[in-house]
Write a structure and sequence with these properties.
Helix content is about 45%, strand content about 20%. It has 15 helices and 13 strands. The chain has about 375 residues and is α/β, with parallel strands linked by helices. The protein has a seven-stranded parallel β-sheet with strand order 3-2-1-4-5-6-7, sandwiched between helices. It has a six-stranded parallel β-sheet with strand order 10-9-8-11-12-13, with helices on both faces.
């Protein structure tokens, strides 16, 4: 008889952790009855993708934290009320295992689950957390039955606070679809691409400074694909102001998240560039690597370790604009090198981030709970 698994997503604004959740649903459904619980705010993209998977979904008026003052006040004011909403949902579903993708921000969920004798699994998809929630972890770390970390960096950061009782380190894997990139196709432009929700963690200021140093090469273009959530409108204005001040015409913004369109852009691009301040297991990079793209990135997650093993690009540890520029020029001048590194990218993803392979360890841990 299948156990009932409740997947809890505190913040439904679509990003890498949500994409990973979408990817593992088909595998989870083989051994569990799945229900997903999330907020009814800013969830359209996530729900659209979930509906394609035919998952039982319940939305509640749950608050989640963001930089907007209104969201912070709502989180505090409705805190107790929302705990009871979550608790009632857990009871109604006759839940056996609760699986949250929201890390330590799952505080309301953990309080809701106290004394219900449910197994609790917390997935950590980041390498940084607000100090307030780190402090609170001291009080609820012993009720977490399984901790899942998307990278070794996540493990090293969080295990200091919640211990090493029962854990698993597993990258946020993706569905691999095989195809062969046409490296010999002649192109007018040399295209660099990044896929990221527009927010300060993605450090797009750095990308703009890199684009500034290369604006004298007329056929180099930077493509930025990403959703702008309401809480990040000011940041988007700041980024556009920087582009305007630097008089750049080599940056193109796209505000869409259609998977087919993103895939086409990735396939037609030459390099994937990531300027993030911190990430754990960047799904956007894995997707780019599956499209045979060489990678130039800041030192996020376990990217450097994978690169030492497969040699698919350049990892810029000090966020040096000049080192980014040198790496881009290096690829710009050498098409054969791009092909060589691109093939290594696809090999790495196939071996290390294939959902069919990596999910098995996670599944065994869940079944044993």
């Amino acid at each position: 008889m299948k156990k009932n698994l409740l997947i809890y997503v505190e913040d439904p604004r679509f990003g890498g952790p949500h994409q990973y959740t979408i990817c593992i649903l088909n595998e989870l459904k083989k051994n569990f009855n799945i229900k997903l619980l999330t907020s009814n705010k800013e969830n359209k993209i996530f729900l659209k993708k979930l509906n394609l998977k035919k998952v039982n979904i319940k939305t509640l008026p749950l608050s989640f934290l963001s930089l907007k003052l209104g969201n912070i006040l709502s989180y505090i004011f409705f805190f107790i009320y929302e705990i009871f909403l979550i608790r009632n949902s857990i009871k109604e579903n006759k839940t056996d295992i609760i699986y949250s993708i929201s890390g330590l921000y799952s505080f309301k969920l953990i309080i809701s689950s106290l004394f219900l004798k449910k197994k609790i699994v917390i997935h950590f998809h980041d390498t940084y957390c607000n100090k307030f929630f780190i402090f609170l972890s001291f009080f609820f770390k012993n009720v977490i039955d399984l901790s899942v970390y998307s990278s070794k960096k996540s493990f090293f950061f969080y295990s200091k606070y919640i211990g090493k009782k029962n854990y698993l380190i597993s990258p946020s894997s993706i569905n691999i679809k095989k195809f062969k990139k046409n490296f010999k196709k002649k192109k007018k432009f040399f295209d660099l691409i990044t896929v990221a929700n527009i927010n300060p963690v993605k450090n797009l200021e750095l990308l703009i400074m890199i684009a500034t140093t290369l604006k004298f090469i007329k056929n180099i273009r930077f493509h930025i694909i990403g959703k702008v959530w309401q809480s990040q409108m000011q940041y988007k204005k700041k980024i556009l102001k920087l582009v305007e001040d630097e008089k750049l015409n080599n940056i193109i913004f796209y505000n869409f998240l259609n998977e087919d369109n993103i895939k086409k852009k990735l396939i037609s691009s030459d390099i994937y560039i990531c300027t993030s301040r911190n990430e754990s297991s960047p799904v956007a990079i894995w997707e780019a690597m599956s499209c045979y793209l060489p990678i130039i990135s800041t030192d996020v997650g376990d990217l450097e370790n994978f690169n030492k093993k497969y040699n698919f690009g350049f990892i810029i540890k000090n966020k040096s604009i000049n080192n980014f520029k040198k790496s881009i020029i290096y690829f710009y001048k050498n098409k054969k090198l791009r092909e060589k590194f691109g093939n290594k990218s696809a090999l790495c993803v196939s071996n290390e981030m294939n959902i069919k392979k990596s999910f098995k360890k996670f599944e065994k841990k869940l079944i044993r709970l």
